[in-house]
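Quarterly update, task 2.4: zinc ion-bound model.
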Amino acid sequence: MKIVLLGPPGSGKGTQAELICSKYNLPHISTGDIFRSNIANKTQLGLKVKQYIDSGSLVPDELTISIVKDRLSQDDCKNGFVLDGFPRVLNQAKQLDSFVKIDKAIMIDLSDDEIINRLSKRRMCKKCSNPTHLDWLVDGKCEKCGGEVYIRNDDSPETIKARLEKQKLPQDVIDFYVEKGLFVKINSLSTKQETFIEVDKILKSLVK
Ligand code: ADP
Ligand code: ZN
């Protein structure tokens, strides 16, 4: 099961990726998470990507693609993975296709108004890196592990606006997967469980 999750920021890609990975025991590869942990650890890569992420821009392809390629070449990805946040532009989709054949590209869609609403309430867990939401917290802590939560740097109102403007999923990426017969689109529903039922219908059709 080699899955790509597409969709705007805040559509719940990360949350759905977690649910898929725990049900099907797959590695969750999130380019955003990889970048954020590199920034937190002040690595070379982290220093290079911080400015792009903080300003709501895309990280240049030459940095992003090699990271994904390296990660997917590791043993745990042999039988499947969920890619969350990659590809975001056509060149990334083409490069990905040159080193691995994916089974499905699932787009999780959401309106701009709802994106702004959700991102402004998004919280991240410091301990388990679960993406969560102000309304899901239990006593102000991560509902999964009880860890402290924080607001992502790039979830400020100005950066959210920049991300929506600069990071709209290009139609050519969608067309790329449509032409291969791999594209499906679902709407992000009001709860993660409801959305997962729709996602899982697609996955079940792959495993049989
Ligand atoms: P979200 O899904 O909320 O937009 P991510 O965690 O996927 O956030 O990504 C955070 C940031 O990392 C993006 O705003 C972008 O700057 C950078 N990034 C992540 N994935 C990619 C990618 N495939 N190509 C370029 N930049 C990326
Ligand atoms: Zn947690």
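Highlight for this quarter: Residues 9-10, 13, 31-32, 35, 52-53, 57-59, 64, 85-86, 88, 92, 154, 163 surround adenosine-5'-diphosphate (ligand 1) (CB under 6 Å).
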